[in-house]
Task: structure prediction
Amino acid sequence: MRDVAIIGIGQTPVGEHWEKSLRHLAHDAIMAAMRDASIEAAEALYVGNMLSGALNGQEHLGALIADFVGLRGIEAMKVEAACGSGAAAVRVGAMAIASGMHELVLVCGIEKMSDAIGNLTTGALATAADQEYEVSQGISFVGLNALLMRRYMHEYDVAKEAFAGFTVNAHRNGAHNPNAMFRSPVSEAAYARAGMIADPINLLDSSPVCDGAACLVLAPADRYRSRAKALILASAVAIDSLAIHDRRDPLVLDAAVISSQKAYAEARLTPANIQFFEAHDAFSIMSALSLEAAGFAPRGAGVRLAQDGEIAIGGHIPLSTMGGLKARGHPVGATGVYQIVEAVQQLTGQAGQNQVAGATIGMAQNIGGSGATVVTHILGAV
Amino acid sequence: MRDVAIIGIGQTPVGEHWEKSLRHLAHDAIMAAMRDASIEAAEALYVGNMLSGALNGQEHLGALIADFVGLRGIEAMKVEAACGSGAAAVRVGAMAIASGMHELVLVCGIEKMSDAIGNLTTGALATAADQEYEVSQGISFVGLNALLMRRYMHEYDVAKEAFAGFTVNAHRNGAHNPNAMFRSPVSEAAYARAGMIADPINLLDSSPVCDGAACLVLAPADRYRSRAKALILASAVAIDSLAIHDRRDPLVLDAAVISSQKAYAEARLTPANIQFFEAHDAFSIMSALSLEAAGFAPRGAGVRLAQDGEIAIGGHIPLSTMGGLKARGHPVGATGVYQIVEAVQQLTGQAGQNQVAGATIGMAQNIGGSGATVVTHILGAV
Result:
């Protein structure tokens, strides 16, 4: 099995791109990554996307985008694992390189959510949850996360205000990321005042609906060592039941536990070796649960890391260093690729004011649904 | 790169399964394949599906199905390439084994189209075509194929009746396949009488809307040689523009040409070595174009193979040996897996009255859209 290197990264700013269609957005990220890698062709494109069928009336993104960027004839397909689609596509790209089937692979995460009318988006996002046993009962995706947050507050006797630190951290980091959707800091007072969406989740607990595309160029590490920007030290996927009521314990993200452990074993590392963590902070509660499942905090103590400032850039485990889903934005099928692009920025010293000093090992964890699919990548500096 | 073996196959009958939900249908195919392979666990599940978001309100099938068949904790995701989704998922499964990342992999193709209301299905199928440049102009997917068929008839001076042989052949083969949706033979006279859908495509040129699931168990050939039922000799994907008007030549399926040539090169074979061809006969015109693109007939001569009886079981290049998309049925995201399951039936001498005598090498070609994604697999007997 060949080691996999990342030799190029590209991303569009995250936001509402009314002036660009889905294919144009993907084009911009892919062209940026190909320029970054100094390549003019690739053999395959794996597209991470969740909602194009529902929101853009367009499936078949693999061929659509590969053709649009001038790569007619190559291999292409779409990979979907709800909000974990981006990292799942990276996983497929890594297998294509590791297997020896390809030498240059593009992985593009893309989501275009702005153009949808009315509450199409809420319904489309709910297809990540169990249609027959959850959604048919009328619950939305934010509603499911609200149940988890309420349960966390109850079981561990945590006040809602305790979660403010995640939002404050994300917005502080996003302020220095030119590609972030939200670039203004948020105070704890603003968090306390934010309008409620699904009690106890308020507006500032929630990542935004937005558009964005990010792209990686993957290649075999042995052949491309001189051009490598980072190495994929581990790539691991694990699943749990979609329905929260079917879980062993709703407050333990078993898929994140298993996915993290697989990744640590593959990279021969422990949580102590991880210098920053790009978490899937779609909602604040997911940050707390992820930190616990990945081994950075004991059960019920994830939220304390945010209260104690341990998740800041200079802290024990810097979290969502470029703004995370909350402030950079969460174009769902693109998010997992953004996380890895940002990890590469950290590992190459290109994270600007958000730079984690001396970062050589980072972890990115992309979650589909409310924890049903978890994709963990550990990235290393060259 | 490790060679990949198929050690188990499973399929449900194709039809209208009103009594089973999507997850139950997938379950039945997966359990059958696991029993066939004598395994009780697997490390990964790749699901080929196109329409679950649109027709079943359910994305995230990887986790949903893996959990439902009792495999919580494994890797799982969905792969989509329009009607080529099934074979694209097989391609990903093959990479997972070839790379050494997994030892036992399930690939399940699943589509549940019956439950959709009204003309949701026609709209959903059109997401395989170019939304911005084709579908927005009001054309349906069958309409696009009708344009191709009309052009073929015009350019090569072929009468509509010349296509009857494809339908007659498919139904003759489907009659002996217990899993086929249509098990009654169809005459040329019936073809001539069939109601028009989109001139010149009539009802008997068209594959049906239906439900079905099929599954393969993949494993490394070296380690599982004694249990191997067939070997994947080649696996190749190529893309073309979604929009037909963007193609170099609308009557040449360039992606099928490239995908076939990649596959022949990988397997070190030529069309002369292929003993049967599971073609993507979603519409009769696709059979003709596929036979030409894959090298079995010169340009404009594909339809003659059907007229001359060369595509029958005892003919020069037996086509759609278990009924094909036309008679076995075309549950879109499942079709590519059905084709390979049926190829394994041929290669293991289990094709019953449809057995191609002494078959040791067969080819399956799954097409997404009207030729924009083409996935070719060449399978060999052990």
About this structure: Chain A touches chain B through 68 residues (CB under 8 Å). Chain A has 13 helices and eleven strands.
